[in-house]
């Protein structure tokens, strides 16, 4: 399963699971003042973060293909990447959290946690293994200085 499923497809699958949880498991329903506004803010911030992080890769003329991290020819460690090693995946998580808020089912936080676990195991760890082999100590130093998600 490592690097076999495109992250966007994983994201959409977990979004569908969230929708189904909200539809068929009304037990965890919650509501609070500003819930929809907070959901919108998360999604807008996620969109901004995703666009900026992709732009940083294009600016450095390196690959953004998550299925083939070996194509990366430069290590991007500035901008958003100074604070998160995976701002593109963090943006996807933020959209899921915003969607979970919109749906208003507390169990969707568990689905979002499942997304993080899946991404760590089948996408991020394999990517990091390839980047460590390719960039050596430079990547190891980056791993020590910068957290995986935030």
UniProtKB/TrEMBL annotation:
**Source organism per UniProt:** Maribacter flavus
A cellular component annotation (GO) from this entry? endomembrane system
Determine the domain of life of the protein's source.
Answer: Bacteria
Q: Where found in the cell?
A: Endomembrane system
Identify its membrane topology class.
Answer: Multi-pass membrane protein
Q: Which lineage do the record's taxonomy fields give for this organism?
A: Bacteria, Pseudomonadati, Bacteroidota, Flavobacteriia, Flavobacteriales
The membrane spanning regions, by residue number, are 6-25, 37-58, 88-119
Recorded hits in Gene3D superfamilies, A to Z, give:
1.20.120.1630
From the Swiss-Prot or TrEMBL record, give the protein name.
Answer: Isoprenylcysteine carboxylmethyltransferase family protein
Pfam families cross-referenced by the UniProt entry: PEMT
